[in-house]
Write a structure and sequence with these properties.
Distance between the termini: 58 Å
Shape: globular
Helix content: 25-40%
Number of strands: 17
Strand content: 25-35%
Order of helices and strands: HHHEHEEEHHEHEHEEEEEEEEEHEE
Structural class: alpha+beta
Radius of gyration: 24 Å
């Protein structure tokens, strides 16, 4: 029997037109409302160049006292001005390829081979999207600690196992302290992302509630009214001596902007007849163009390539906050 080839089962045009089965909008992060996609950001992602500029109007200066009215026509008031700020974001142009040898066996077994490969490819990019989003939160937090006195971070963790106690673990008090780094904007929070080890602590403390629909079906779990996102990609770092520190992230709606556009030749099947000393290989390549950007920050520095790697996104030098702290719907809690 002849070998199954990618070109036999993948119609590139149909592949591109199929709805994404596991696109970013299927993630718990997207469903929680912390990621906002809009046509504006889709257009920015589709524009030319490697970066996009996101202008915004700064708030009116509340520290300037109002004028005192008078009856003197010769005395004139001086109007105040409003200023425009700018967030600069670098587009994330990524791709991945798979060889026919790794895919063909599985593809040949399914009733719908095209849908099967779509499931696998979409799931891969969903997970990579999520890793990039979380990497940005790590970088934003690192920038905040390095350049803004850590005013978005509440850290109660011990650097050693010996120093751990009830006060260094996740608790209501620690959570409240972290949330109130937002000051009077605290009511804008909508979700909290935690590692499963932290979720276990929350469950043992009796702090987790089930949110169900009218039919009793579980919609999600909540903590103090916030949707809980459990993901072991959440940051776990080694303590300075031993043990681990976990960063939980408090999100407000629209904390991240998301846009996507179709790059040139977004899906391709490639035949390399010279590979394998003439035996040949066949490969599937999928390309993405994304904007994933935290509200209130801009990208700084230059990536080693045309887009930032996940490791680069985690560094403080790639981020700069351009709005007041209370206007950033993010907060961080570090515990053991």
């Amino acid at each position: 029997m002849a070998d199954v080839q990618l070109s036999d089962i993948i119609d590139v045009t149909v592949f591109k037109d199929l709805p994404a089965v596991n696109g970013p909008e299927k993630t718990a992060f997207f469903n929680s409302g912390i990621i906002a996609q809009s046509e504006l950001f889709n257009e920015l992602a589709d524009s030319s160049g490697k970066t996009a500029e996101l202008p915004f109007w700064k708030d009116i200066d509340q520290t300037v006292e109002e004028n005192i009215s008078s009856a003197d026509p010769a005395s004139e008031a001086t109007p105040q001005k409003i200023e425009q700020g700018e967030m600069i974001t670098r587009k994330q142009m990524v791709n991945q390829g798979w060889s026919a040898t790794n895919l063909a066996t599985d593809l040949a077994m399914g009733d719908d081979a095209l849908q099967h490969v779509r499931n696998r490819v979409d799931l891969y990019f969903q997970r990579r999207f999520q890793r990039r989003l979380l990497a940005e939160t790590v970088g934003v937090m690192a920038d905040n600690v390095a350049n803004d006195s850590g005013d978005m971070v509440h850290d109660v963790a011990s650097e050693s196992i010996a120093g751990q106690s009830g006060s260094t673990l996740f608790s209501d008090d620690a959570f409240v302290d972290a949330s109130y780094t937002l000051g009077d904007m605290v009511d804008g929070l909508g979700a909290v992302g935690v590692h499963s080890n932290i979720m276990k602590q929350m469950v043992k403390q009796g702090s987790v509630e089930d949110v169900r629909d009218a039919d009793g079906q579980l919609l999600f779990k909540a903590y103090k009214g916030l949707r809980i996102i459990v993901d072991d990609l959440m940051t776990a770092t080694a303590g300075g001596t031993d043990g681990f520190k976990y960063t939980s992230i408090l999100f407000g709606p629209g904390a991240f902007a998301w846009g996507s556009a179709e790059p040139h030749n977004a899906v391709a099947v490639d035949n390399n007849e010279r590979a394998g000393d003439g035996a040949g290989t066949e490969e599937l390549w999928v390309r993405k163009k994304w904007i994933i950007h935290p509200l209130g920050f801009q990208n700084t520095g230059t990536p080693a390539g045309d887009s930032f790697t996940v490791a680069e996104l985690k560094t403080a030098t790639k981020w700069d906050r351009v709005v007041e702290r209370k206007n950033v719907p993010l907060a961080f809690l570090v515990t053991n």
